[in-house]
């Protein structure tokens, strides 16, 4: 029985690896990521999001398409005049689906915290007290899962800065974390190649925090 379970586990790992390494999958993801970088309107955002969702339907064991669809819905809430809560609720559901595929993933966990941070921004006074600890917990968990994840660190820095401004305390902790994230982004940049489809976003947010630390 143990041998059967081990064989099944190894088979599932191989299937997931083979799918993620499939040239067609990589090419489809690259096409959507290139389109993501050109989004200027909500309609374009929806089109690219739907493209990622179609990839997700075709590759049910891959978390990345769901992750990017959730990220786009989160960014849409920040960028466009839409029903922000609806977009963020949809983003959270997509992130939960991604989490079921890849539990304990630092990137997905950090994204879940980012979605909560976006929801807080809609009504800081009404939501900050209850949602801020949840977001901070998710960012802390994401950091513990992968201390080399620059997004987990930079998003935590953003939350720390916002809390320091709200409570009138110094930004030293936020600034320290933001600088740490910048170092991690530099390390990440060295890994990026033509076939890199893992998340690389967040450096602009880290820049915004560090710009307030001078």
UniProtKB/TrEMBL annotation:
Keywords: Signal. Gene3D superfamilies: Tetratricopeptide repeat domain. It comes from the Bacteria. Residues 1-20 form the signal peptide. This is Tetratricopeptide repeat protein.
């Amino acid at each position: 029985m143990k041998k059967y379970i081990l064989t099944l586990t190894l088979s599932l790992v191989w299937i997931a690896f083979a799918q993620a390494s499939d040239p067609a999958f990589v090419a489809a993801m690259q096409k959507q990521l290139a389109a993501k970088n050109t989004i200027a309107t909500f309609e374009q955002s929806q089109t690219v999001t739907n493209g990622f969702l179609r990839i997700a339907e075709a590759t049910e064991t891959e978390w990345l398409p769901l992750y990017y669809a959730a990220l786009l819905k989160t960014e849409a809430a920040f960028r466009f005049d839409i029903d922000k809560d609806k977009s963020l609720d949809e983003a959270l559901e997509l992130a939960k689906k991604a989490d079921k595929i890849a539990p304990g993933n630092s990137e997905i966990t950090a994204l879940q915290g980012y979605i909560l941070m976006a929801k807080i921004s809609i009504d800081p006074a009404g939501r900050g007290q209850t949602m801020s600890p949840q977001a901070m917990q998710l960012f802390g968990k994401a950091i513990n899962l992968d201390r080399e994840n620059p997004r987990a660190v930079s998003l935590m820095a953003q939350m720390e800065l916002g809390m320091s401004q709200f409570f009138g305390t110094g930004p030293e902790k936020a600034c320290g974390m933001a600088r740490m994230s910048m170092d991690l982004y530099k390390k990440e940049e060295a890994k990026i190649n033509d076939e890199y489809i893992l998340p690389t976003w967040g450096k602009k947010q880290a820049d915004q925090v560090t710009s307030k630390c001078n």
